[in-house]
């Protein structure tokens, strides 16, 4: 039997942070054997926010490096740059014609971005989820590994697929999100989601010393004022990070000792630092090697384009047939 398909995408923001890694990337890596996976560097989506064209090539390159360094195997999975398979935008246009504007206006990320970028509320920002739906259903993906902030987008994707199917006949399966064990890591401020624009991230390529600098001042349980106060791991973002990076015995130890003030926050953070860095170190080694191989990375994306395009064109042929267009298709 043919393997079911997976699609997911990451914006080429320049640097991946541990939130991206733990909430989505790990699942992307884990699904590679059981599914036929397509992973995109979604530059079309990145264009919706003001950017510097001079930086784009490096952003794309680094994103591809991060994918491979973290464990995406480009021989197994398809790693592609979204804009090289322009069928994504082609399908997005068709989907636009069946998506009510009111569905898009209520998407939470649109509301957030409108507030963050009040001088650049462009059509692309509103249309972002339709393009994302196209990314997914053009490959007829069944499973989409993402962080929990993407769930509303997946709900919309299902609604759009359902509407297409009911108007033009069964074409697209309804994809399901796959959330990680820890699907949301807050930033160092302990309040906002980890996000580059808020400068509250730990990046995948930071040294142990750099990470320690950030962790040591990161917000914990704000009710624990003194070392002698017992803490509450349930409300502590450092504890969330433990759940994402530490083995059970360390999590149990920190929970127990925190609750009775047996350890202080710094002790707890040191244990986290060691576990986190154990996972990041081999990734960083690969990042360093891959950053010297620009040609290789471009070759991977070129190959990904060819393989992805084949699937995307097939879907578009079917879409035009369903729409009744026959002249050239
Ligand atoms: N919106 C996603 C994010 O910001 C990126 C993305 C674009 C995506 N297209 C996708 C994720 C399709 C999953 C599937 O993280």
Automatic annotation (TrEMBL):
E.C. number(s) listed in UniProt: 6.1.1.2
UniProt keyword Ligase present: yes
GO MF, one example: tryptophan-tRNA ligase activity
Motif ('KMSKS' region): 193-197
Binding site for L-tryptophan: 135
Binding site for ATP: 11-13, 19-20, 147-149, 185, 193-197
Motif ('HIGH' region): 12-20
PANTHER family, per the entry: TRYPTOPHAN--TRNA LIGASE, MITOCHONDRIAL (PTHR43766:SF1)
Family per record: Belongs to the class-I aminoacyl-tRNA synthetase family.
Name of a matching Pfam family: tRNA-synt_1b
Protein name: Tryptophan--tRNA ligase
Subcellular localization: Cytoplasm
UniProt source species: candidate division TA06 bacterium DG_78
């Amino acid at each position: 039997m043919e393997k079911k398909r997976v699609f997911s995408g990451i914006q080429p923001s320049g640097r991946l942070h541990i939130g991206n890694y733990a909430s989505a990337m790990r699942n992307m890596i884990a699904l590679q054997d059981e599914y036929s996976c397509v992973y995109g560097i979604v530059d079309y989506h990145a264009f919706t926010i003001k950017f510097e064209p001079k930086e784009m090539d490096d952003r794309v390159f680094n994103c591809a490096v991060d994918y491979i360094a973290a464990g995406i195997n480009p021989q197994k999975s398809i790693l592609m740059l979204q804009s090289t398979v322009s069928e994504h935008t082609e399908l997005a246009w068709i989907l636009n014609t069946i998506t009510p504007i009111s569905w898009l206006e209520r998407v939470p990320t649109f509301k957030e971005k409108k507030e963050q970028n009040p001088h650049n509320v462009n059509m692309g920002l509103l249309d972002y989820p339709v393009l994302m739906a196209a990314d997914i259903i053009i490959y007829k993906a069944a499973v989409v590994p993402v962080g929990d902030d993407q769930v509303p987008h997946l709900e919309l994707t299902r609604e759009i697929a359902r509407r297409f199917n009911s108007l033009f006949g069964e074409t697209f399966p309804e994809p399901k999100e796959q959330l990680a064990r820890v699907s949301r890591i807050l930033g160092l401020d302990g309040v906002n989601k980890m996000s580059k624009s808020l400068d509250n991230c730990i990046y995948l390529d930071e040294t142990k010393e750099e990470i320690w600098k950030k962790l040591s001042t990161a917000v914990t349980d704000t009710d624990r004022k003194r070392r002698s106060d017992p803490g509450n791991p349930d409300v502590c973002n450092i504890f969330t990070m433990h759940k994402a990076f530490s083995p059970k015995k360390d999590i149990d130890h920190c929970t127990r000792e925190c609750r009775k003030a047996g350890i202080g926050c710094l002790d707890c953070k040191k244990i986290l630092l060691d576990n986190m860095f154990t996972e990041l170190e081999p990734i960083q080694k690969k990042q360093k090697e891959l950053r010297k191989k620009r040609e290789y990375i471009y070759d991977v994306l070129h190959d990904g384009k060819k393989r992805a395009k084949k699937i995307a064109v097939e879907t578009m042929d079917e879409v035009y047939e369903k729409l009744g267009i026959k002249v050239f298709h």
